[in-house]
């Protein structure tokens, strides 16, 4: 198959858009389906939302695996992120009745790797050739940077729970849920913007058209 034919079948912009939409939807979908008080998005694995949670992560992983970017570094990063997304789905977080902490440890490792790589996309890969420019490219660059900052903030909040008991100190029981939702939301917005589909964020020449 020629490169031209491949590009017509697999549009990197469409992959980015789909990945972003699914990532943005995960917190809302698991919250809606689980119909319980979730202290973390990962905890939805132990609710009626398990199939949706696992399924959406597998889809994100599949799309990330298919995404090769514009360089070998992007290709490798997306593959590692894909494996990490699937790892988060396969190895559930810890729970009060779990007998083994191994799967929980793997869950946290995969989640950390996934979010770190996605942050690199915001600060480095998506910024390539557009940082410091004006117009649509400049607007995209600012959004990527903001999303990267939000993802770093979310990771710092999650990590801070190793030394701060927010529930005991402040009575906050859903810090993990909202931090994960913030990270996924920033991830989703960045990839939707990178899909070059939204008006005002891509020129007519580079904008993704879904039905042409």
Please report the total strand number as a whole number: 0
Q: Could you list the spans in which at least 5 consecutive residues all have pLDDT below 50?
A: 1-7
Number of domains: 1
Mean of all residue-level pLDDT scores: 89
Q: Helical stretch count? A: 8
Largest sheet at a glance? none
Rounded to the nearest angstrom, the distance between the terminal CA atoms is 21 Å
Regarding quaternary structure, what we see is single chain
Radius of gyration of CA atoms, rounded to a whole number: 18 Å
The proportion of residues forming helix, as a percent range, comes to 55-70%
Structural class, from secondary structure content? Answer: mainly alpha
Beta-strand content bin: under 5%
H/E series: HHHHHHHH
Shape: globular
Describe, in plain words, how this protein is organized in 3D.
With 212 residues, the chain is an all-alpha fold. The protein has one domain. 67% of the residues lie in helices and 0% in strands. The chain has 8 helices and no strands. The protein has helices spanning 3-9, 12-34, 50-66, 72-90, 102-125, 135-160, 166-170, 175-194. Helix 2 (12-34) runs antiparallel to helix 8 (175-194), helix 4 (72-90) runs antiparallel to helix 5 (102-125) and helix 6 (135-160) runs antiparallel to helix 8 (175-194). The radius of gyration is 18 Å and the shape is globular. The two termini are 21 Å apart. The relative contact order is 0.15. Mean pLDDT is 89; it is low at 1-7.
């Amino acid at each position: 198959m020629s490169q031209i034919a491949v590009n017509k079948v697999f549009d990197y912009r469409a992959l980015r858009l789909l990945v972003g939409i699914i990532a943005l939807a995960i917190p809302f979908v698991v919250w809606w389906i689980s119909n319980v008080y979730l202290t973390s998005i990962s905890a939805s694995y132990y609710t009626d939302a398990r199939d949706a949670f696992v399924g959406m992560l597998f889809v994100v992983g599949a799309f990330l695996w298919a995404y090769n970017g514009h360089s070998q570094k992007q290709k490798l990063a997306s593959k590692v992120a894909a494996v990490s997304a699937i790892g988060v789905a396969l190895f559930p977080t810890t729970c009060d009745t779990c007998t083994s902490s191994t799967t929980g440890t793997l869950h946290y490792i995969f989640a950390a790797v996934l979010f770190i790589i996605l942050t690199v996309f915001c600060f480095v890969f998506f910024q390539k050739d557009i940082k410091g420019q004006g117009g649509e490219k400049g607007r995209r660059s600012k959004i990527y940077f903001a999303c990267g900052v939000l993802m770093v903030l979310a990771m710092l909040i999650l990590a801070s729970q190793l030394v701060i008991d927010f529930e005991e100190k402040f009575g906050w029981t859903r810090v993990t849920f909202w931090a994960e939702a913030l990270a996924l939301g920033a991830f989703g917005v960045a990839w939707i913007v990178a899909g070059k589909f939204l008006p005002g964020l891509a020129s007519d020449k580079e904008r993704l058209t879904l039905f042409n």
